[in-house]
Amino acid sequence: MTFLLKGAASALALSCGMAAMGSTPAQAYTLMDMIRGDRARTQSTIVNPRRSVPSFLQSAPDAPLPKVSSPRYYTYQPDAMRFVDTGKFTDPVVTGAVADASAATEATPSVQRRFLIEAKVRAPVEVARALEAYYGDVKNPLVWLAGTDVNDRAKAAMDVLADAASVGLDPADYAVQVPAEDPTNPDPAVRDRALTQFELELSAKVLAYVQDTVRGRVDPNKLSGYHDFKRKDVNLAPVLKLARMSPDTPAYLRSRTPDAPQFVALEGELAKLRAEGASEERIDIALSGLLRPGDNSSEIPNIVKAIGKHGSAALKAEHASTLSAYTGSTEYSPEIVSLVEGFQKEHGLKPDGVIGQATVRIMAGGDSNASKVEKLIVALEQARWLPADLGSRYVFINQPAYMVYYHNDNKEQLSMRVVIGQPSHQTFFFQDQIETVEFNPFWGVPQSIIINEMLPRLRSDPSYLDRMGYEVTVGGRAVASSSVDWYGSTTNVSVRQPPSDDNALGELKILFPNAHAIYMHDTPSKSFFKRDMRALSHGCVRLAEPRAMAAAVLNTSVDQIGKEIATGKNHALQVPQKIPVYVAYFTAWPNKDGVIQYFDDVYGRDAYVQKAFDATTKARDAQI
């Protein structure tokens, strides 16, 4: 196991952690402490201030090491379904109630409405309640019937439901069949029963569609412990009335789909790819290792061809002479290197001319059309979890892109590379608000790192933290690391690293208090930003240009940020106005120009969303 080492290679410099929490200057206080209750503990850690190494360490048998587990992924459990309680529907023939005047153009309530009690429809719980509320009020006429047939409104609504795939939903979830007439059975009651069953089924599908298109089919909190969203409440109560009263029912239903520019861009890309189909030409580049400037490779012709196809118009114009003069040479010449560097730069890769697998993947066209479609469907779903409007000023971290973007006045004003959590220490997916920037921060070492990574070393070398300059407290009292019983409970033990050049958080951290103790911060490990794959931290988000981001959120200058740091003192400033921050996870997302970019699924999360789709459709299709 790797332990804390002095300098940038420090394992603890892989900052944050599954349960990291920054400490105040007065005392380190970890998230694990907060989860367990308060600072007072019934299970205390033995402190022996009289000797540097407890004598039992020399003879104690090997004790099993405790472990702090990471959040886990779940087997998705779809939203509950139940039968609509048609017993709540009032029979106007029995009660003598009279529907409102608008019912005159609808189905005759005294004939068809009374068969609602016999209809059998399963629906998500919220949908079932809305159906019971609408049809339980006798003043509400039927929505989708006219005489002894379905009305034009029903046919138009069914067209919208059949087109659900265009907005990333599954039409199978909203399919309903118009009842066919049976010429062999002249009994009008048979037809009326079939039409009434259709009425209730279509209403259930319309309500489910509205709910899904607003908030998504999947409850993200049921996917994993890494997802944390307050699921949106969708007011279904007025939907059927508005669908019935609207002069353009399809327009009303489509209006419920998000219309944020990011969502519209994803929706447009999905339509484009589906129109193109799976016939796109792919350029294979058979490169297993690295190709460096000056090398020779038989793949150079394919590389030039790929850039000619997938490079931007601006790039091809800039290197037009190189592309037109190329005759198929296998030499990786300076001219081709410059072309490759330009291609790498416009795709967010390190523009060093060294061609590795990340560059090859994008040169070859990245994902297939089918794979892109899958990513777009997941992205549209996840976009529904976020607010319909991200705001005019916000920070957006897209983990698969390893990038953070600062938006102000509805424009992207700053972007930079970030380092996110390793697959074993994943960064969460949630939203919050930026509140504070702390300068020259202390680093409160999380219990997860103390237990999982430091404890083995401390059991054999109790004075280790003392030598490395870390501060240790037990129950709030400062003690020497060598005096702590590292074989006992660490519940009361807090460890923090004072501000320094080697501090894991560097010069500053940007805080948006949350249950996962995720924040943005500086780092002494600058070399990590040169890598294309940057899932390297313990969960927090490291910034390539922390001073620039701090200046943006504080609405000040980079020079002023430098002055704050130059004091050498630990202190914090509140942002003038809280700023939304989206710690997001999208393998497909538009750039500032509205062009969709695709990224590797570094944590494999898209597959869990796909499984949740399948489970949801299966649950809705199930017959009980």
Description:
With 624 residues, the protein is α+β, with helices and mostly antiparallel strands. It contains 20 helices and 19 strands. The protein has helices spanning 31-36, 92-95, 109-112, 125-135, 152-162, 188-215, 239-245, 249-255, 261-276, 300-310, 313-318, 320-325, 334-346, 357-363, 369-385, 447-460, 464-467, 546-554, 558-566, 605-621, and strands at 81-83, 122-124, 145-146, 149-150, 394-398, 403-408, 411-421, 430-439, 443-445, 471-474, 477-479, 493-497, 508-511, 520-521, 535-537, 541-543, 571-584, 588-590, 596-598. The chain has an 8-stranded mixed β-barrel with strand order 5-6-7-16-14-13-8-17. A hairpin with a 5-residue loop joins strand 18 (588-590) and strand 19 (596-598). Helix 18 packs across helix 19 (558-566). The longest helix has 28 residues, at 188-215. It starts with 30 loop residues before the first helix and ends with a helix. The model is unreliable at 1-15, 17-61 and 94-110 (pLDDT under 50).
**Average pLDDT, all residues:** 85
Category from helices, strands and their pairing: alpha+beta
Biggest sheet record: 8 strands, mixed, barrel
Structural shape: globular
Q: What is the strand tally?
A: 19
In terms of DSSP E residues, the strand content is 5-15%
How far apart, in Å, are the first and last alpha carbons? 53 Å
Strand order across the largest sheet: 5-6-7-16-14-13-8-17
Q: Can you give the helix content as a percent range?
A: 25-40%
Radius of gyration: 30 Å
Number of helices: 20
Question: pLDDT under 50 segments (min length 5)?
Answer: 1-15, 17-61, 94-110
